[in-house]
Amino acid sequence: MNARTVRIPRLPRLPRLTPPAPRSSPPRSRVAAATAAALLSACATVDTARPELELPALTASAPAQVERWWTLFGDPQLDALVDEALGANLDLRAAMARIDEARAALRLARSNLYPSLDAEAGASRSRRSEATSLRQGPPFTSTTYDAGLQAAYEVDLWGRLAAGRAAADSSLLASRYAAETVRIALAAQVASTYFTLRAYDAELQLATETLATREENEKLQAQRFEAGLASEFELRLAQAERAAVAASVPALKSAIARSEAALALLAGRSPRAVFTPVVARGIDLQKIAAAPPVPAGLPSDLLARRPDIRRAETELVAANARIGEARAQYFPRLTLTARFGGESADLSDLLTSPARVWSIAGGLLQPIVGAARIGAEVDAATARREQARIGYVQSVQAAFRDAHDALVAHRGAVETLAAQDARRTALARALALADARYKSGYSTYLEVLDAQRSLLEAERARLAAARDRQTALVDLYKALGGGWSPAQFAQETAPAKASAAN
């Protein structure tokens, strides 16, 4: 692949919000207005630019039907297992719960932009000192009742609350991308484990059939030995070969049981079902559909299709917003409060006109001594932004490495399977010739045993190559962001963005 440099604008630094030095020449009103406008613009800035990266040439398009790529293998049982896992897997359910948490955090951030309205009611009883209240006289004990409504609103002069909402909005989107990442990884893990299970099934069937053949050979050599037509050496070789094949059967059964338990766990089944797993089988490994067409290069929309990259990008946006939120603390907060209600010494008079009370107030809160604390928060937010920037670059690097390795592995697996097919065909013919030579007296039984061992090893290697071809294709779809439809995802996230904008 030819390299092509794609320049993405470098992420600029946010302006540091420090109060400007007073100047005597312009009128004070003009300075105040200019300062307020500059600070408001600076605080409200949320930088969404991505770091500059050098990317390879992206020419190929993504394979068709990538949203449900596992259906391309044509195995209904694989489809059922993946759907079961996507509906019940605990890791995916935890990721969905994190989306709910982020959605609640966004609602909390949005609520800060609107006035609060509280209802209050209370009663108090107090006694004055007789020693200090001689002029007022009795009664020294009094009861007061009060009830009313109290409203409060913070005017977002410097964009602090808006930046907090923007950060929460980006965090919600990042949590959805994280869930999509878990979804893709889960589907790939189920498919890979299923293909491994089918490979173990095929290998167990091969071992069982081979064991039956070795038992027949052992019986034949025993008969020939009793008839004096074969030596004890040939008999012992036949017995050893049968025992070697028999020893592989328990190991294969154990591997099958572990793979079934792994699939049951991925599917989110109960502990009882995981302990005694039952996994239905579909199409035999060697009859599963051949690998679907694979693009020659990387897809042109890899950066847009990989949810882990999109997650890192939205986390970078959120980190930028947090810087603006932290810097806005340098400047005063304007809070408006209002209260309307009643206050009376008699509960029955609480709602009457003479008992009515109200108040309207506004206040400014300007940090003075806490500037060092605010500076530390700004520095921490800036450091987190830098971490998010580095995380974005790392996610892009990892994505292209995954795609590169998956393409290389897939090509190698296809070539290996073709070579193993040719090897098995040649060794099957060699075994037939060795058996004919042995029966004709031109060679010893040892030559037949060598041919049998070679063919068995070639059969096992071919099954492993078939498994590797399928798992390499699974890894390729995972690396290309398979299982995630950008259009569908944008449609699903549109309601959340619309509600955040309201």
Describe this structure in words.
By secondary structure, the protein is of the alpha+beta class. The chain is 61% helix and 10% strand. The chain is built from eleven helices and four strands; from the N terminus they run H-H-H-E-E-H-H-H-H-H-E-E-H-H-H. Strands 1-2-3-4 form a four-stranded antiparallel β-sheet, with no helix packed on it. The longest helix has 69 residues, at 371-439. The radius of gyration is 37 Å and the shape is elongated.
Distance between the termini: 46 Å
Shape: elongated
How many helical elements? 11
User: Order of strands across the biggest sheet?
Assistant: 1-2-3-4
How are helices and strands ordered from N to C?
Answer: HHHEEHHHHHEEHHH
Total number of β-strand segments?
4
The unreliable regions are 1-46, 488-493
- Mean pLDDT level: 80
- Which structural category do the helix and sheet elements fall into? alpha+beta
Indicate the proportion of strand residues: 5-15%
- The level of helicity is 55-70%
Major sheet size, sense and barrel closure: 4 strands, antiparallel
Radius of gyration: 37 Å
In short:
With 502 residues, the chain is α+β, with helices and mostly antiparallel strands.
